[in-house]
Structure formats: structure tokens, C-alpha cells
Amino acid sequence: MDTSKDKIAEELLLKKFEKLSLNVEKLTDEITQLKHKMDKNNKINRSFGLKSLKNSVPLDFAKDVMGIGSPTKRYLLSIRGISEEWKGKKNDFLIAIRQQEKETHTDLKSLGIRIPIDDIKSISVLSREILSLLYISCELKGIEINNILRELLSEINQDGLKMVREIKNKML
Fold this sequence. Notes:
Blueprint: H1 2-45, H2 50-54, E1 56-58, E2 65-66, E3 73-82, E4 92-101, E5 107-116, H3 120-141, H4 145-170
Antiparallel strand pairs: 1-3, 2-3, 3-4, 4-5
């Protein structure tokens, strides 16, 4: 008689253990799904470079360049000044690509590179690449580039002292 009671108790224990195991499996699956959703949400909402963008100041002489946007977002290339010390360097140009909400113009994400103001080699390389894009664009459109370059250089020469003063006041 004891053996039959023991068998019944053992079967009940096994059934309860099975139910408990199934519940643990379900909970584990639910937790995994929640973790996956949170990771996905954090990946979507994380921001790159917004802190650097907030620590920088817009430069009056550097205008934002608009990129091709989407129905809900717009993209800008900004050249800004940043005087915050980072990795032992201070007083840099911040070239940032900013993703903004189209209606509110709120920065959602930003990715940028810092170039020290006195790094003439890097700034020259950047200038050469931008002028190459301008040259290609002019050639494809059949527009004479010399007049555009002459206008750009005249404008820079005219506003040069004002630009240097702005950098000294905002950054140095």
C-alpha cells in the first residue's frame, strides 16, 4: 500500500514539476522577447555625437548644407566650433552630420569629426575634396568653375578678418 501511495505522490510531483518547468520556459521566452525589444528600442533611440553638438557653437560664417531628406527627417552638414577639451585637444572645428526631425528641427542623431584649428594639412585635404566635388558638379552641368572660385575667394577675403575675430571670440 505504501508503494502505491509513493507512486501516486511521485506522479503528482512529476506533473507539478512538468508544469513548473513549462512555466519557467514561458517566462524565459517572455523575458528574452522583452530584452530583445528593449535592445532594439535602445538601438533606435541611441544618439551619436549629440553631446559634442551641444558643447559646440555654430559659426556665423559657416552655413549648414542640406542633404537629401526623407518624409520625416532632414539631414544637415554643419561646421561648428568646439572648445571643450577632448583627448588633450582643445579648440577644434566640428564637422557634424545631423539628423533632425523635419517639422520641429530637433536634432535626433549626430555624427561628427573634430579637426584641430591648427591642423592645416587635414583642412587642406578637406578643402581639396570639397573643391573636387564642386569641379565635378560644374563640369557635369557645363558651368565655368573659374567664376565660382573667384567669387568664393573674394567673399572669403572680404570676410576673413570677421571670421578670425569670431573664432577668437568664441573659441580661443
